[in-house]
Amino acid sequence: MKYRLAMEAEYLIALSLSRKTALRKFTPAEIKIIRTLVEKFNDDSYNKIKEIEKTTNHDVKAVEYFIKERLSKTSLKDSTEWVHFALTSEDTNNIAYGMILSDATENILLPKLLKIVAELKTLAKHHKDLPMLARTHGQPATPTTFGKEMNVFAERLDRGLKHLLGQKIQVKLNGASGNYNAHMAAYPKVDWLKWSETFVAGLNKKRKFALELNPLTTQIEPHDSYVELFDRIKRFNNILVDLNQDMWRYISDEWVVQKPKPGEVGSSTMPHKINPIFFENSEGNLGLGNALFEFFGRKLPISRLQRDLSDSTVERNMGVAFAHSLVAYEYLLEGLARISVNEHNVVAALTKHPEVIGEAIQTILRREGIEAPYEKLKELTRGKENTLEAIHAFVGTLKVSDKVKKELLKLTPENYTGLASHLASK
Question: Domains of the chain (ranges plus CATH)?
C-alpha cells in the first residue's frame, strides 16, 4: 500500500510540474504535503485504506480515495480529481511492484550476497595452500586446495553479481489497454510516451536496479523483466545449494569443524552431536525460494488477451520467495561464522590416497615416450590399497633416465596441486 501511495503521489506531483496539463503548479510546501503522506505512512494509514477498501472492494481505488480524503483538508483540495488521472490500477500496481523489487534486491538481498562472497574469499585466501583430496564421482581424484574450492564458489557468485547489477525492471504507464487512450482523449497534443519516460526516470534516483519504461504492453506489463530478475536470483540460490551440500560433506568427513556454542543442543538423545543445521536450513530455504521463482517464471509472462487477474494473486507472493532466500543467506552466513578448517584431517585424508599422483606419473611418462603408461599405472593402482612406497618401487623399474626418476619420486599428493594455490587467490 505504501508503494502504491508513493507512485500515486509522485504521479500527481509530476502532472503539476510538467506544465503540460491544466493542473496548476504546486508550491514546494504543497509538494511536501503530498510526500509526507508517504513518509509518515504507518499502520493507521494502512488500516484507513483497508477500511475504505471494504466499500470499494478495490485496493487501488481505496488508495486513490485515501489520498483525496487527506488532500481535501489542505490547500490542494482543488486538485484532488487529478489523483489517478487517466490511469488504470495496473499502472499504479506495476510501478509499485517495480520499486519494491528494486529496493528489495538492492537493500535486502544484495548486501547478504556480497557478505557471502566476502566470507568465501576470506576462506579462499586463508587456505589457498592447504592441499586437499578432490573427489570426482565421489572417488579420490587429483588433489586441489581448500582455498581454491572456496574461490570457485566466490567467483561463480561474483559473475552472477555482475549480471545482476545490469538488471532493469520494466514498467508501464499507458492506461487500460496499453494505448494511452484516456491520456490522449484529455490531452492529445502531449507527447505521453516522452512524458512517461521522464516520469519513470524520475523514480530511479540512485537505484542500482533502475525502472525502465516499457511502451508496448497490454493492460499489464508482461513481467518478462521480473522473470529475468528471478532467474538471476535463482542462479545464486542454486550455487549456494551446491555450496551448502559441499560444506555438509566436509563437515561429515571432519575436514571442517563446527564450533560449539554453550547451551546449544545438537541432538535430543546424542549429546556429542553438532548438527550442520545452518547449512541444512539454508539449503531447504533456497529450495523453497527457487520453487516459487520457477513458478513465477512459468506463470507471470502469460495472460489471456489484454489481461486476466491471475497474475495479481501470484505477485502478492513474490515477497515470500525473497524471504526464503533472505533466510537462506542468513543461515549460510551463520554457518560460515561457526566453522574452522581441520587442516590435519584434510591433509591426512589426502595422504591416505597416494594413487592420486598416478595421473602425474603417467603424464610424464607419455612425455618421455614410454609405451602404454596409463595402462601400467592402471595395473599398479586400480582397485588396490596403495602406498607411496609401492609407487616408488614401480618408478624404480621404469626404463627412464635417473633425472626423470628423481622428478617422479618428488611427486607427493601434497605437492601435486597444480595452480590451485594461484587460482585460490585469483
Answer: 2-85 (1.10.275.10), 105-166+222-344 (1.20.200.10), 353-425 (1.10.40.30)
